[in-house]
Amino acid sequence: MIRINLLPYRAARSKENIRKQVSIFLLSFVLLIVVLGVFNSYLSSREEKLSNNLDNLKKEVAIYEEKARQVEEIKKKLDTLNKQIEIVNQLKEYREKPPKLLAKMTETIIPGRMQLTRLISDDANLTLEGVALDNETVAVFMLRLERSGLFSDVDLASSQQVNKYNVDMKQFNIKCKKPVPKTIDSESKSAGKPN
To answer: pTM for the complete prediction?
Structure first.
């Protein structure tokens, strides 16, 4: 009978199995390192993109904050400009009032029957002094003043008999109250109140 020694074959087979296992382990380790390297590079590129996006967003926020600040400055300038326009309009109105007042006075005076000697005007009141031929002329003049719409109240302060130009005349003093105009201060205060 022939004897076959299988021991070297088994030893070679076990060495081959060990070599295969070491190779599989090393290949798995290399593959793991490659996968980790790829994943790391992916994460670092993603982090870089997000960092760039964050920087861009910060720049955009700074730009929009600057634009918002400019808009606020423009709003302030616009408010100031609107107030200045209101003041200019009010000054135009005030400038036109004295000529209008004098024009109305010439319309209300009764020609040939009376004469104004003095006219004193301030923001709220108007004082008229003059002479008239009789009380009826003074009364008609006062009615005309009331109907002119320029005054809220017309009062005869005094009336006395005088002799002027060798004629008996009535010297009168009339006080008139002007309507209270709207001022810019009260308008700006009411506009500044929150609703």
So the answer is: 0.48
- Please check whether residue 115 is in contact with residue 131, taking contact to mean a CB–CB distance below 8 angstroms: yes
Q: What is the pLDDT of residues 133-186, one digit of tens each?
A: 888 988 998 888 888 877 788 888 888 998 877 888 889 998 988 776 555 455
pLDDT of residue 195: 41
* Residues pairing with 118 in the sheet: 129
Rounded to a whole number of angstroms, the distance between the first and last alpha carbons of the chain is: 119
133: exposed, middle or buried (C-beta count within 10 Å: 0-12, 13-18, 19+)?
middle
3 state DSSP class of 127: strand
* Closest C-alpha among 125, 129, 134 to residue 152: 125
Give CA–CA dist 171/21, Å, rounded. 135
DSSP 53-116: HHHHHHHHHHHHHHHHHHHHHHHHHHHHHHHHHHHHHHHHHHHHHHHHHHHHHHHHS-TTTEEE
Q: Residue 141: helix, strand or coil by DSSP?
A: helix
Q: List pLDDT tens digits, range 69-83.
A: 999 999 999 999 999
